[in-house]
Amino acid sequence: MDGILPLWKEPGMTSHDCVFKVRKILRMKKVGHTGTLDPDVDGVLPICLGRATKIAEYITDAGKSYRAEVTIGFSTTTEDASGDIVEQKSVRRKWTAIQLESILDSFIGSIEQTPPMYSAVKVNGKRLYEYARQGIHVERPTRMITIHHIKLDEGSIVTNSDVLKFSIDVACGKGTYIRTLAVMIGEAMGYPAHMSKLTRTESASMTKKDCLTLTELAELAENSNAVLSPLIPLERGISQLKKLRISGTVAMKVMNGAVLPIPSDWPAISDEPVALYEEERALAIYHVHPTKEGLIKPVKVLWIE
Asked: Which pTM was predicted?
């Protein structure tokens, strides 16, 4: 069983919980997820099965979209609703949709972001949340992230008990922490803030309409043929990569992981990866050889003869 299972993760489970349950339901070991979702978060979680586990990192690196609720008025230790309150400031000012949209627009593009202490980012070989749980504060690496799109849901704006809440739709690049973005939005408004709810609405072009729940998967698994119906070909998970069509003896060499001369129609610039296809089947992912001029080498061989 090879392909991508578009799972709708429900709240209360970790991404690893989902992988464990899928392994049990499908009775297979080669299962992997494509980017951690916190237990409180629901939404699209593509699960890679069989050969598709080889391209999990490309799905993880592909763009994602979210629906987030931002609460302005107090911040938390974890930057989401599960943490303890750190700072409070009553929101007395009346914010209009136009004013909020102006703030949100300032985050579109490439911006710097510092990941939260309660995150899986590693510093000196140790994850930040491990330091946080021990009460140790360490210097966190600031990095560039990309916000492609951010839109306010005007109908979601609510002021209650000196707190302002509103929902936003965000499309972003890899490495973006939406809870940190919520904190940054609050800072731009002059208030402490946190992310109070989050749903991942899209991952690598997969949306809720593509997904099924663990319960639905278990029902389908009772019929070995039916369980294949929701699977998405692994090629969709690497659709963002540039493509090169090959055939014949070259295809055989690619499936054997051969180092090859750079083809005349090589589409990549510098070391950008390229997916090599025989007709509609992705055989491998190659990039320019890092040390041998004029050659390309495989990063991932997806089909082996």
From this structure: 0.88
